[in-house]
Amino acid sequence: MSSFSDYTIEEIVNMSLWQRLSIYNWKIEIFAVGAIFAYFIIYKIGASYNDKIANKFVNSIVPTLKENFYQVGVTSSQLIAQDDGQHYALYASGRLRIKSMVAKIELQMRNNIFMWVMEYIVSFFFDSIPTPTDEVTLEFQFDDEASEKFDNFIWAIVTKDKMDKFRTENYFLSLTKTTESNKLPNQFVFMNEVPEMNDVLFTKKLSDNINSNLSTLKFLAITDQPIEKPAKIAELKPTKRLILKLSLSSNDKTIESISNLVNYIINDYLDLIVNRSSFRPELTRKVKKTREIEYNKLKKQLDDLKREELNEKKIEEQKKLRASLTPEEQQKLSKRQQERKQRKQLNRQKVRGAM
Amino acid sequence: MNPAVSNLVLMLIGMQVSKRLDFENPDTLFYVRLAFVVGQSLTLLIYLYVRFTILKKNDLTTLKYLDAPNKMAGETESKLITTTVKDYDLKQIDSSIKGIFTGLAMTGFMHLYMKFANPLVMQSITPIKGALESNIVKIHLFNSPAVGDLKRPFKAAPSFLSNLTGGDIKTDKASIEKAETAGTGGIKEE
């Protein structure tokens, strides 16, 4: 291929535009456009694979949602909201006993292949960066009427794989005790406040569904306490909900067993919780105690903070006052303060002497 | 022999050996480099094999212990770790594998950038020795029963730094029960 350097300046000046373009070396441009195009194709493949996973899951539970909820979808015309190539959300509302259902789907960064590979490598070397996974978190919030009908408690079935991560991420799980049980498959543990609740809440059908979701179920939790550690007293107020975390894949069989579990929960289990979880006072005593302790801890923390702030304010005000005075006045003030201190000490000695 | 003592002995021998080697000679340098690469690969292979056996055994027995607080990071209370034997073992082996890479980076820097060849001699033997002496390899490669010193969680070897970095791991029932429902989770990170 020829290039500009093969010609003299006069020759180039006399060429037409087309002639000049044809002798130009287009290698870099071709490479750049090719790279962009390849990146775009990879992006499209990754994004469409993510779309496929999300849609498969959503489509598998939509029939049940439509039967149970008045509104299914983020708006009346749109079913799922997509934030970017890896985050999706589904919303449903208008069912007896349930205020709302939010499903958040978080998939691997397949749409951005460089970041995806990086995440895998970095997650091996740093504990703070999690290994990429495909997950969905469903949160069913009970309405006020249903909430009044059953007790406050935390009860969960959690997969043993990386269970410490769930305990550090979720405040409510860190209030529970972890116990193994021969009722459960070997891959799971109970995290609950009172073990006796297992008899009521761990139903035969739930057990069957968990058995067919051994590798997909991350945790199933019924809780009145929040996910994030409360920083205000108001956040300690119980809001009852059922949280279900599952891992997703595009495999038809997995999707089917996941949707069976979700369907069972929506159709029967939510009502079962409301109807049957009123426990004997001996059982709920421990639960109440835990909440009291947490309330006192938070209150003490907030009080300490307030006191500190007040002290700081006082010191600052004094500083300001001093700065506004002339040097003589400042001297006078410090003299007066010292006198006052001395008088106080004297008084104290006097009182002691009188005794 | 106590691993600390044998390490010291090995270091002294290594120093004497590397003193006598002529690193200017390309042949010697080649064999030293070869020994280093073989040593590191062998260590990695041992660890990868152990990792594979851990995954195959898939021991899901629950393990609870109180991790020592990291005083350097300003932690005051020990944190409860709820995990399984498998996850615990994987964590140990992964940190050993990470250790190989950090060692490789350090020696690589010293050799390629600062042109020292002495560390290569030591670094071709100590990682293998360290690997064969580590608790996790003893359990999975030599099938030693996990009792005594090999009982999980492993106790850290006492060192002069242990006062700085915090106390020891606790496994008694009372402290675990107290820490278990302490509500330490869900703290939002900025």
Describe the structure.
The complex is a heterodimer of chains A (355) and B (190). Chain A folds into 2 domains: 31-284, no CATH class; 325-355. Chain A has 11 helices and 10 strands. The relative contact order of chain A is 0.09. In chain A, helix 8 (204-211) runs antiparallel to helix 9. In chain A, a hairpin with a 2-residue loop joins strand 3 and strand 4. In chain A, strands 1, 2, 3, 4, 5, 6, 7, 8, 9 and 10 form a 10-stranded antiparallel sheet that branches. The mean pLDDT of chain A is 90. Chain A is α+β, with helices and mostly antiparallel strands. Chain B is mainly α and 190 residues long. Chain B has one domain. In chain B, 59% of the residues lie in helices and 6% in strands. Chain B is built from 7 helices and 2 strands; from the N terminus they run H-H-E-E-H-H-H-H-H. Chain B has helices at 3-20, 26-57, 85-113, 118-133, 135-140, 162-165, 173-180; strands spanning 62-67, 79-84. In chain B, strands 1-2 form a two-stranded antiparallel ribbon. In chain B, helix 1 (3-20) packs antiparallel against helix 4 (118-133) and helix 2 (26-57) packs parallel to helix 4 (118-133). The longest helix of chain B has 32 residues, at 26-57. Chain B starts with a helix and ends in a 10-residue tail after the last helix.
